[in-house]
Amino acid sequence: MRFKCTFGCSSYGEKGSCPPQVPSVEECRAFFAEYREAVVFRLVKKVNQPEDRISWSREVNKELVKVEREVFKSGYYKAFMMTMDECRCCATCTGERATCVNKEDSRPGPESLAVDVFNTVRSIGYPIEVLHSYDQEMNRYAILMVE
Ligand code: SF4
Asked: N or C: which end of the chain has fewer CB within 10 A?
């Protein structure tokens, strides 16, 4: 998955929550080994124009981070949300973790942490396909790690 971020994605090096501003694949492996449970959120949407995906992601991710906080407050101190899509908090990203202007709300997407989302969600029976046009229905996924 890291190769897909590094080669072919326009956000590589442009986002404070995307590679290369995220832990190495080895560090991600160690991170996931800390958990026994995860909650997968399936988010389904059809948009009228490609740009609409960004505002939708921004709104959904904001709510997902709130969910993480509530789960954390209920005692699951390692709760960590991997948001749907890359961080969309700001219209323009600083491109660096250290200079991120919204560190409390910014989270990486699962792909950023080298998760094979296709394989993961298919293994639990959720649908996901490579889409070939923007008017197709999207199945997007966020993952909350819980411990
Ligand atoms: S919160 Fe803003 S500055 Fe920080 S990673 Fe997200 S888009 Fe970039």
From this structure: C
Q: If you measure from the C-alpha of residue 82 to the centroid of ligand 1, how many angstroms do you get, rounded to a whole number?
A: 14
Number of domains, the chain: 1
pLDDT tens over the chain, length 147 residues: 999 999 999 999 999 999 999 999 999 999 999 999 999 999 999 998 989 999 999 999 999 999 999 999 999 999 999 999 999 999 999 999 999 999 999 999 999 999 999 999 999 999 999 999 888 999 999 999 999
Whose CA is closest to atom 4 on ligand 1? Answer: 100
CA nearest ligand 1 atom 5, residue: 16
How far, in Å, from the CA of 94 to the mean position of ligand 1? 6
Distance CA 105, CA 102 (A): 6
Write out the residue range of the structural domain in which residue 65 sits: 2-146
